Amino acid sequence: MRFLRTGFFLAVIATCLVVMVLVTLSGRKSAQASPYTTASTTWVLPKLQGSGTVTLAQFKGKPLVLDFFASWCTACRAELPDFLGVSRKVAGKVQFAGVDSEENGDGVGMAQRYGVTAWPLARDVGGSQLSGLRESLETIPGMPVTAFYDASGRVRLVHLGAETAQQLEADLKQLFSVSVS
């Protein structure tokens, strides 16, 4: 009888542990998933500041350069002035937007310091570090990341690491036949 009670007690404890592990794992999965990011080819993200969303659909019709940045990222701060300069030169031909990803500081402040006012800015959500959309692009971890979408919303290139103005201009010419004037 004592053996049966001990066995029953151990079975109950084992069952409880299994249930706790399953609940924990499913909780992690849902915490990483996001209602705002579905895939690299269709996404909706909250605006970086204020209410509303930024969506891939709003950019269809012209190529899009999507710049992933974070305030802690030195390389992001280095490339941002070049990206702003190129975006002004190709205005009307190529669209630019920014996504504050993996942020643990002040992405809004960074955007304001660098004068990013003409681009729609979004906040990445989900993923392992508030980086759901960036992770859906299947890049290796790191920042900055630049995603190039064609006019129909398909990803044409994902670039990890900072780009200079010259590299960005070369990418625009190669991918979209857009010359920078």
Give a concise summary.
With 181 residues, the chain is of the alpha/beta class. It has five helices and eight strands.
Name the features.
single chain; alpha/beta; 5-stranded mixed beta sheet; 2 domains; Glutaredoxin; globular; 3-stranded antiparallel beta sheet; 181 residues
CATH class of the largest domain: Alpha Beta
CATH architecture of the largest domain: 3-Layer(aba) Sandwich
The helix content is 25-40%
How are the strands of the biggest sheet laid out side by side?
A: 6-5-4-7-8
Distance between the termini: 88 Å
Rounded mean pLDDT score:
81
User: What percentage of amino acids are in beta strands?
Assistant: 15-25%
Series of H and E elements: HEEEEHEHEHEEH
Low-confidence runs:
14-38
Please state the CA-atom Rg, rounded to the nearest Å: 22 Å
Name of the CATH homologous superfamily of the largest domain: Glutaredoxin
Describe this structure in words.
There is one protein chain. It contains five helices and eight strands; from the N terminus they run αββββαβαβαββα. It is of the alpha/beta class and 181 residues long. The longest helix has 31 residues. A hairpin with a 2-residue loop joins strand 1 and strand 2. It starts with a helix and ends in a 5-residue tail after the last helix. The strands form two sheets. It has a five-stranded mixed β-sheet, with helices on one face. A three-stranded antiparallel β-sheet has the order 1-2-3.
